[in-house]
Amino acid sequence: MLDERTLGQLLSYAQHEQRRFRPVRVVHRGDVGGALVEGEALVLDNAEDARRALEQPLRQALLAPARQAGVDLTHARLADISLVALGDQQSYLNAAEGPSHEELRFALFFWRAPRAFAGGELRVRLTERTGSPLPERHGEPRRNGLLLLAAPLYLEISRVNNRSREFQDGLFVLFGRFKP
Q1: What share of the chain is helix, strand, coil (3-state, %, to 5)?
Q2: CATH no. for residue 52?
Q3: Which pLDDT tens digit goes with each residue over 51-102?
Q4: Is the CB of residue 168 less than 8 Å from the CB of residue 110?
Q5: CB distance 172 to 102 below 8 Å
Q6: Which terminus of the chain faces fewer neighbouring Cβ atoms within 10 Å, N or C?
Q7: Cα 3 to the chain's mean position, in Å?
Q8: How many alpha carbons lie under 13 Å from residue 134 in its C-beta half-sphere?
């Protein structure tokens, strides 16, 4: 978890860079029964200023969980980050291969307090490399909550309902990757 000051800076950065976010549409045909999963959100890639400012705080927040996952972050660098903004009636899907044994992928969930939106439930499904699905896990994102993405998985964020429709009142997710 990040301290409140750093979290506030991250939210301010997202608001300041609002014009650089680009709409994306993700469509994925699921493993089970060929179900179609769609997502639509705003994404900011190559957030270099944020990457530099967040590298040390994120490393500190991830040291213990990374150690438990068998990854040493001592000399790792924050290789890349992207910011996802979910506004009214938007959802998102991140389907990704697992990281190598030397890198650590993560997602950080944040929003302005108090929470001004409904929805945004997380659905995480691990998938074996053979393509066989494993059980899904569901849950509400926690503000300032970190999720390690240590295996091949599908991370779906269900539709967000944001009555104000203001950018700053949505759900934000910072995806990143530390590597040697």
Answers
A1: 20, 45, 35
A2: 2.60.120.620
A3: 889 999 999 999 998 888 788 888 889 988 999 999 999 988 876 665 566 6
A4: no
A5: no
A6: C
A7: 18
A8: 13
Cβ neighbors of 114 (< 8 A, separation 6 or more) are none
Question: If you average pLDDT over residues 143-171, what whole number do you get?
Answer: 88
Sign of the CA dihedral running 47, 51, 54, 58? positive
Q: CB of 76 within 8 A of CB of 85?
A: no
What does R_g of the chain's alpha carbons equal in angstroms?
16
> How many structural domains are present in the chain?
1
**For residue 65, what are its two tokens?**
């969980």
Separation between Cα atoms, residue 78 and residue 130, nearest integer Å: 30
Backbone angles phi, psi at 127, to 5 degrees: -130, 125
Q: Cα angle at 10 between 54 and 22, to 5 degrees? A: 105
Residue type, 120: G
Token readout for 108 is: 């950080």
pLDDT at 154 over 90: no
